Amino acid sequence: MPPGNDSAAGRFAIARPRSRRAGISLTPLIDVVFILLVFFMLASNFMEWRAYDMGTPVQTAAAGSDEGAMLVELRAADQGAGVILHLAGERISVVELEQRLRTRLERVPDQRVLLRAGPGVPLQETVRVLDRLDSLGLQELALLPPAG
Amino acid sequence: MRFAPRHRRRSSEDSLLPLINIVFLLLIFFMVAGRLTSSDPFEVEAPESISEGLPQPEIPNLLLGRDGSLALNGEIVSRDKLGQHLAPLLDGEGPAKLRLRADGRADTPEVVALMEELRGHGIERLQLITQPQRDAQP
After folding, report:
1. First CA to last CA across chain A, in angstroms?
2. Mind telling me which residue stretches traverse the membrane in this protein (chain B) (predicted)?
3. Which residues of B touch A55 (CB under 8 A)?
């Protein structure tokens, strides 16, 4: 400790070691902060998940009879991407299916629709069809396992 | 005369201050905005959807990979031992719920078959996890 706290010269004498103490290098701090930053960048997840609430297929299929339900079949396209939709055995486009369902829903608001995907149809395609049918306001929409 | 060295030292630190500011801001952003989650044991690309429903966080999470591999709550399980692993997770009250995150490239009949199997294990409500569309489609 330098002597003479009360003199002006003493004040200057104290000021130097104090400023040296305050002058700890910032580099270790930056190192640590960088490591923390890299850790949080790598470990954190920005994924936003959404969900479709569904009963399991057997449950929904067993909940009511299949009487009066519309069965939409999804089949894999022979070549290229996409799926082919079949309604009651005939090929139909998504837009056409939407129109038919819309007119049907005006008369029968609780129309059940069953969706059956054949082998080779990726889940993404099924979800895409599910999206379009769901946005029509269907109350009963079920996924069915393939026949047989 | 005394100010000269102090000023020189400060200027070398001053040049670092904007860097530290930015790094701190980035650090706080990632700490606040990101969520720390354990990484998946295998890659699962959830199907894109316009669904607005939000998944429930506190229910068991089942992953279905493109090749049919399964992981329950982050641990890989084999298909035939699934029920065994699922049973202790389902003793809560209310309907048994499960989040299913299946790969969008997986075959739909396989996913539906798994859903049926889950039903057989006592799952009553299932949430199919999707992700918002990355590029809006017309």
Report:
1. 93
2. 16-36
3. 124-126
Domains in chain B, number: 2
Contacts of A122 in chain B (CB under 8 A): 104-108
State pLDDT tens for residues B14-51: 788 888 889 999 999 988 888 887 778 888 888 888 88
ipTM value greater than 0.90: no
Contacts of A29 (CB under 8 A, 6+ apart): B20
Task: Specify the number of domains making up chain A.
Answer: 2
What are the tens digits of pLDDT across the range A89-99?
Answer: 778 888 888 88
Question: Do residue B11 and residue B75 come from a single domain?
Answer: no
A72 domain-assigned: yes
> What pTM was computed for the model?
0.70
Provide the shortest C-alpha distance from residue A127 to chain B (in Å): 7
> Does any domain span residue A51?
no
Judging contacts by C-beta atoms under 8 Å, the chain A residues touching residue B47 are 123-124, 126-128
If we measure between CA atoms, which residue out of A120, A117, A107 comes closest to residue A142? Answer: A117
Q: Do B113 and B63 belong together in one domain?
A: yes
End-to-end distance of chain B based on CA atoms, in angstroms?
72
Cross-chain CB nearest to B16 (options A23, A30, A49): A30
